[in-house]
Amino acid sequence: MIYNIGSINIDYVYRVPHLVTPGETLASHSLLQVLGGKGANQSVAAVKAGAVVSHVGRVNNNDVWALEQLANLGVNIDLVEASDGPSGHAIIQVDDSGENSIVLFGGANQQLTQPQLQKALSSATTNDWVLVQNECNGLPDVFELAAAKNLSVAFNPAPMSKEVLSLPLNRTHCLIMNEVEAADIVGVGSDSIDDKVSALIQRFPDSIIALTLGAAGVKLIQDSNVVSISSPKVKAVDTTGAGDTFVGYFVAGLVEGQDPQTAAIMACHAAALSVTIEGATPSIPSRVDVASFKKQTEEQ
Ligand code: RIB
Question: Could you read off the pLDDT of 77-120 as tens digits, one per residue?
């Protein structure tokens, strides 16, 4: 079972001819309101990949529709608590090439409490995993509680902040990060991917690391071995949530007992498929679709 301690956002997705520039007022083509948040997206992706997921989070009662969607998609929402304040939301611009930029409002995601986290993990056992991103407060508590119960931790330090640097990252079983996050964590200023990979190997000798490179795929690092996994080519409609799709599928694969390479290949295919559809949660593909897409790409 995966306990995912993560954000639940209302995503306002604006299609724009280009990402707005400083001082510019820009008319959008359309507006879509959907369930999002790195946490919620990753819960949905992990469930679609076949994992059992209990989401730990907080949302305003007015946004119960978002919770209903999570539940309808198969995510256990018993550990999501109500907030008096507004839910988290994201203002997302998506341009004609599918690229995005995001402004976040943390809201209820920043109101997790130590008692809530303690209660949420009280029935967790050593076979369970904790998945966590960086859109909720309380991460030091999460790491401490997980260590006390000997749970495997998968951490996706997104969006990156300086607080991440003081977390006990060496205790993570698995780290999934992009190049920017990796550079901040290992303190490598150079553009070279190899420099970051070397620094990651030195800093986290005991963790499985997926360094995500967008359309260029993933560098998978374990026991000082590095494997490059390419991403299938697709026409991008909206890249929002592609990273979350990767994380959810990858962690679900590891929890299921797949070797990291198999899990990462499946996750790359899932992420690639997700960029062909608009929205974050709505674009996360089913395991059956990912498997048939993988078969198709292998036959080409
Ligand atoms: O990773 C994509 C997500 O980031 C969006 O769904 C948005 O809510 C932000 O959290």
Answer: 999 999 999 999 999 999 998 899 999 999 999 999 999 999 99
Q: How many other CB atoms are found less than 10 A from the CB of residue 52?
A: 14
**Cβ(60)–Cβ(53) under 8 Å?**
no
The predicted model scores a pTM of 0.97
State whether residue 215 is helix, strand or coil: helix
Does 244 participate in catalysis according to the annotation? yes
Residue type, 207: S
Domains of the chain: 2-299 (3.40.1190.20)
Among protein residues, the one with the nearest Cα to ligand 1's atom 10 is 37
194 C-beta neighbours (distance < 10 Å), count: 10
Return d(Cα 70, Cα 9) in angstroms, integer: 11
Cis peptide upstream of residue 157 (ω within 30 degrees of 0): no
Q: Which atom of ligand 1 is nearest to the CA of 244?
A: 1
Both structure tokens of 178: 């992009």
Classify burial at 41, counting beta carbons within 10 Å of its beta carbon; exposed 0-12, middle 13-18, buried 19 or more: buried
CA–CA gap between residue 137 and residue 123 (Å, rounded): 21
Burial pattern 144-174, b for ≥16 Cβ within 10 A else e, equals: bbbeeeebbbbbbbbebeeebeebebeebbb
Pocket test for ligand 1, best of 34, 38, 42, 87 (most atoms within 8 A of CB): 38
Residue ID of nearest Cα to ligand 1 atom 5? 37
CB of 11 within 6 A of ligand 1: the answer is: yes
